[in-house]
């Protein structure tokens, strides 16, 4: 007994390895197991509520994109024609939303800095004019109403296919449709050109100045014979269009209706309202002309040039860019020479300057 105690003490002093008993080994195993099973105390392993929401949103967006991609591939394989309409519709919505946001940003800037419409740069003025076009607003309102009921978007697709020109705005047209529809609209306004020239001939006897009577007669004759008038031939008649009988407030009702059709404005309104709309429309174009002259035609892209020419009466869809720039330069030279009281001449210039340009008369 004493000898065993001595041996144990000796081994403890000299550091010799002594196998512990079963009781000691079991306690150590339980202790280590307890350390392994214990819950982590570090708070870094937990996500904050904001991180949880962010991760959830990221997951939802990723899944939505994946499902949307599968849906697009399914439509492209099994319904190719419908997929074309669907793609055009979705791109049109994106373009329309982007235009609306840009228009709102421009108007907000105008309100903050007390800027009037005529003080804006040309591109911002043109953007607001396009967004606030009366006909476009009616079409958007109609599409919005019929899209309210559940699953009515399929009806919108059907109407897009059947009546794209009558019900949709340019955002939802294909490139080919844009060209075709612009030709159709120009044919509509072209029908009113001979009627407007005839109204000008009827008022010639009412002009008191003999020289002005001769000049207007000569101008109408040139246009009827297919000759493109010179700039000085038109500007020489400024006095005729500033007061009776061709001033904006002295035009006859039928004359006003014909001019409304030439400007692609509805002619089924009372004459006073038509006259007001023509005044407003012509004033906006005059303000655009001044801003464009300040910017310079050379700063416009090819599409902007063609769009500007079409607005002013020229069917630019089948005319080269250089000739469109030449015609737009002639228009600006006339427009920037006119005063506010002479805007009736600018309104008639839609017919006078565009009818026979480069053989466009048909």
Would you mind describing this structure in some detail?
It comes from Gorilla gorilla gorilla. InterPro entries: LETM1-like_RBD (IPR033122), LETM1/MDM38-like (IPR044202). It is a single-pass membrane protein. GO terms for molecular function: molecular adaptor activity; ribosome binding. By secondary structure, this protein is mainly α. The chain folds into 2 domains: 102 residues, no CATH class; 177 residues, no CATH class. Helix content is 68%, strand content 0%. It is built from 17 helices and no strands. Helix 4 packs across helix 5, helix 10 runs antiparallel to helix 13 and helix 15 crosses helix 16. The longest helix is centred in the first third of the chain and has 34 residues. 19% of the residues are buried. The N terminus is likely disordered.
Helix content: 55-70%
- Overall mean pLDDT: 81
Order of helices and strands: HHHHHHHHHHHHHHHHH
Termini gap:
133 Å
Classify the secondary structure makeup into a structural class.
Answer: mainly alpha
Number of distinct beta strands: 0
Portion of residues in beta strands equals under 5%
Largest sheet: none
Estimated radius of gyration: 38 Å
**Per the principal axes of the C-alpha atoms, what is the gross shape?**
elongated
Number of domains: 2
Q: Give start-end ranges of low-pLDDT stretches.
A: 1-46
The number of helical runs is: 17
Protein name: LETM1 domain containing 1
Pfam families: LETM1_RBD (PF07766)
Organism: Gorilla gorilla gorilla (Western lowland gorilla)
Membrane topology: Single-pass membrane protein
């Amino acid at each position: 007994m004493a000898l065993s105690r001595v041996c144990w003490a000796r081994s403890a002093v000299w550091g010799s390895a002594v196998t512990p008993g079963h009781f000691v080994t079991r306690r150590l195993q339980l202790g280590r197991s307890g350390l392994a099973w214990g819950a982590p105390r570090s708070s870094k392993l937990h996500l904050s509520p904001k991180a949880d929401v962010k991760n959830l949103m990221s997951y939802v967006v990723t899944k939505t994109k994946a499902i949307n991609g599968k849906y697009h591939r399914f439509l492209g394989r099994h319904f190719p024609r419908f997929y074309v309409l669907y793609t055009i519709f979705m791109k049109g919505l994106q373009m329309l939303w982007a235009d609306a946001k840009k228009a709102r940003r421009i108007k907000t800037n105008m309100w903050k800095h007390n800027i009037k419409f005529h003080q804006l740069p040309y591109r911002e003025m043109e953007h607001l004019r396009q967004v606030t076009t009366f006909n476009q607003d009616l079409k958007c309102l109609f599409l919005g109403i019929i899209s309210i009921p559940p699953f009515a978007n399929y009806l919108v697709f059907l109407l897009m296919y059947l009546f794209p020109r009558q019900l949709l705005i340019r955002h939802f047209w294909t490139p080919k449709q844009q060209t075709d529809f612009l030709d159709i609209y120009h044919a509509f306004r072209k029908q009113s050109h001979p009627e407007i020239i005839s109204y000008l001939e009827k008022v010639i006897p009412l002009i008191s100045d003999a020289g002005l009577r001769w000049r207007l007669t000569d101008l109408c004759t040139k246009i009827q014979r297919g000759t493109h008038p010179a700039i000085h031939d038109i500007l020489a008649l400024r006095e005729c269009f500033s007061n009776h009988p061709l001033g904006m407030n002295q035009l006859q009702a039928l004359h006003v209706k014909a001019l409304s059709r030439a400007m692609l404005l509805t002619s089924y309104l009372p004459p006073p309202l038509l006259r007001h709309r023509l005044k407003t429309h012509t004033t906006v174009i005059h303000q655009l002309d001044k801003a464009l002259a300040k910017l310079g035609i050379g700063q416009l892209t090819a599409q902007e040039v063609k769009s500007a020419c079409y607005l002013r009466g020229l069917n630019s869809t089948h005319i080269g860019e250089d000739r469109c720039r030449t015609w737009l330069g002639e228009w600006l030279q006339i427009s920037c020479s006119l005063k506010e009281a002479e805007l009736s001449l600018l309104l008639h210039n839609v017919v006078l300057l565009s009818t026979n340009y480069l053989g466009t008369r048909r």
